[in-house]
Amino acid sequence: MNKLAVVAFGGNALLKSGQKGTVSEQEDNIYETCSNLLDLIKKGYDIVIGHGNGPQVGNVLLQQEGGEKVFGIPKMPVDIAVAETQGSIGYMIEQQMRNVLYKEDLERDIITIVTQVLVDKNDPAFNNPVKPIGPYYTKEEAEKIAKKTAAKFQEDARGRGWRKVVASPRPVRINNRKSIEKLARDGQIVVAVGGGGIPVHYVEPNKLQGIDAVIDKDLASSMLASQIRADEFYILTDISKVFINFNTPEQIALDRVTVKQAKQYLSEGQFAEGSMAPKVRAAIEFVENGGKRCIITKANELGVANAGTRIVLS
Amino acid sequence: MNKLAVVAFGGNALLKSGQKGTVSEQEDNIYETCSNLLDLIKKGYDIVIGHGNGPQVGNVLLQQEGGEKVFGIPKMPVDIAVAETQGSIGYMIEQQMRNVLYKEDLERDIITIVTQVLVDKNDPAFNNPVKPIGPYYTKEEAEKIAKKTAAKFQEDARGRGWRKVVASPRPVRINNRKSIEKLARDGQIVVAVGGGGIPVHYVEPNKLQGIDAVIDKDLASSMLASQIRADEFYILTDISKVFINFNTPEQIALDRVTVKQAKQYLSEGQFAEGSMAPKVRAAIEFVENGGKRCIITKANELGVANAGTRIVLS
C-alpha cells in the first residue's frame, strides 16, 4: 500500500499578503504550491489536500455586504460563505493541480469534495467567540446588528472598527471521511475539508444545520488525517521551520521535536496564537492519534531533504 | 446491480419565483425537493443529483458587483462564480438530503463533488453569446466595460438596461465522471455537475482554464447520465407534463413520447426556448445515447404512478 499524506495549504499558498485576490494572482500562487507536491506524487504517495480560506471567505462576506447595500441581495450565514469558498478554491486547486500534472506528463486524477464538519454546540468555544470575520462596522452599526441577530461584536485592536466574532469550535467528525480515504487510496488526489470544513451541528437529534463558526483549518486537516489513517501530515506555511525563542538572539530552528517537547514549548508560550501555536497543536494531535509524523514546512521546501520541522511521538 | 438514476433539480427546486433567496427559503425548498426522491431511494436506486444555479449565480454576481463598488474587492469571472454556487447549493442539498434520510431512518451517505466540465472554444456558441448574466448596466457603463474586458452586452427586452451575455456551449466531457459513477454504484447519493458544471477549456494542449460561459444544466446532467450509464434520467420542473399546443384550446399533455415524435414537435416549435425545449433536447440525447427513458415531471409527483412525460426510444 502506498503511503498516504494529508497536506494542508496555508493562506499564503493561495493569496500572498499584499495581493488583492484577483483570480490570476490566486491561480499563479496555487500553481506554484501544487508544483511543490510533485516530490510526494513522484514518490507514489496517495494525497489529500486541505486548505485555508481566510482571505477568500473575508472577500465573500464583504461581497455579501456590498450586494445587500447596493442590490438588496440577502446576506448568507458563515456556513454558506465557507461552502462557497470550498467550491471556488477547491476548483482552483483542482485545475492548477491538473495543469501541473499535465506539464510533467503524470497521470493522476483529482477530485474536490464539499466537506461538512460536525461541531458540538456545547463546545466551550461558543461561550467565548474570538474569531473576527467580515466587514468592519461603527459601534452603532454593530450594536444595531447585534440586537437584531444575536451576533457578537468586538472592537478591532488596530482601531479599524467593530467586527463580528464567531466561535472556533473543535471539529468532531468529518463527513465523507470514508469516501475521501477510499478515493485517495484509489490514487486520486482529493481536495477536502477546505477552510476547516463547513461547520454544522445537530439542532435536533436527527436534524443537521449550519452554525456561525469557523473551524481551524489545521485542526480539521489533522483530524481528517487521523480519521483516514494517513501516514504523514504536512502543514505548509511561509517559514522554513518552527522556531523557539523566535525573533530573539536565542532563536533556534527546530528540526525534530517530540510531542512531549512540543507540549512543553506550547506551555511556555513559545508559539504565537493565531499563527504557529494552532499548527503545533494540530501536529501533536495527529501524532498522538497514531500518525507517523507531521512536518511543518515552507511550501517550496516540501521536497527538500530535512526541510521543515518534524513532530514525532518520541 | 441497482438501477442508476440521474435527477436534475430545476431552479424552482431551490428558489421559488418571487422569493429573495434567503438561506431558510432555500433550505425549505430543497428539503421538500429532496423528500421527493424518497420513492427512488426506497426502491433501491443508486442516485446522482444534478442541479441548476440560475438565481444563486445571479446573486453571487450582484454581490461581486456590490463588493467591488463598496469595498474594492476584485470581481471574479463566471467560472469562479459557478464554482461558488456548486459549493453553497451542493452543501444545502447534501444537508437537507441527510435530514430527509434521518427523518425516515434510512441509511445512505451523500457526497458533493465540485465538477468541472470541458467545453470547446470552437463551439459555434462562442460566436453568438446569448445567455444574459449579472447586473443590469446603463448603455454607457456597458460600453465602458465592453471596451476594457471584451465582454459582450445586450439590451434587456423588458427595458431594464444592458446585461452581459455569455455563450452557452455544449458540454464535451464531465470531469470525475468515473468517480461519480463509482461512488453512486457504491450506494452514495452523489451531488455533481451543479449549474451545468464549471466551464473550462484547454488554452494550450496541456493547460486548462476557466472560460466565460454557462452550460445548460439539463444538457450537462444528460451527458453525465449517459457517461455513467444511468438507466433513467429525471428532469424535475414546475409543471406536471410536457404539453403540445401549450396554452391553446388544443393543449395536450404528453404521457409518453418517442425520440422521433419529440424531434418532430421540437421542429414545429412546440416547446419554448429557454424553458421546455432544452429539457426535451436533453431527454432526447440521453435516450439516443443508450438511456432507457427520461422522465420530465413536477418534483412532487416524482413517485406518482404515470406522472410526468416519458421520453423513450420507440
Task: Write the topology of this structure.
2 copies of one chain form a homodimer.
Chain A: E1 4-9, H1 23-35, H2 38-42, E2 46-51, H3 54-71, H4 78-104, E3 110-112, E4 116-118, E5 131-137, H5 139-149, E6 152-155, E7 162-166, E8 173-174, H6 177-185, E9 189-191, E10 198-204, E11 207-210, H7 217-227, E12 232-237, E13 242-244, E14 252-254, E15 256-258, H8 259-267, H9 276-288, E16 293-298, E17 309-312
Helix pairs in contact in A: 1-4, 3-4, 7-9, 8-9
- Categorize the overall geometry of chain A: globular
Order of helices and strands of chain A: EHHEHHEEEHEEEHEEEHEEEEHHEE
Number of domains of chain A: 1
Going by helix content, strand content and strand pairing, the class of chain A is alpha/beta
Kindly state the mean pLDDT of chain A as a whole number?
94
Low-confidence stretches of chain A: none
The CATH topology of chain A comes to Carbamate kinase
Note the main sheet of chain A. Answer: 8 strands, mixed
Please name the CATH architecture of chain A.
3-Layer(aba) Sandwich
Most extensive chain interface and residues per partner: A-B, 58 and 58 residues
CATH superfamily of chain A: Acetylglutamate kinase-like
CA distance, first residue to last residue of chain A: 25 Å
Q: Compute the CA-based radius of gyration of chain A.
A: 19 Å
Indicate the multimeric state.
homodimer
Count every helix of chain A, treating DSSP H or I runs of 4 or more residues as helices: 9
Spatial strand sequence of the major β-sheet of chain A: 3-9-2-1-12-16-17-15
Strand content of chain A: 15-25%
CATH class of chain A: Alpha Beta
DSSP, total strands of chain A:
17
